[in-house]
Design a protein that fits this description.
Elements lengths: L1 H70 L1
Amino acid sequence: MIDGIKHQCYCNINIFKVVVVIIVVVVVVVVVVVVVEVVVVVVVVVVVVVVVVVVVVVVVVVVVVVVVVVVL
């Protein structure tokens, strides 16, 4: 009887370990996915800002050149 109780206890401990490992793996995967999404969003925002700045600079340069050519 005591051996049966010990065996049941060991089984419960092993099941508990498996559950803990599964929870840890799920949490790590979720954290990695969230971090990757945040990095992707930041990269996209930076690219959009750079493109907007370049477009604005090009438009300003074109306007200045046109104004200088028209005035002169």
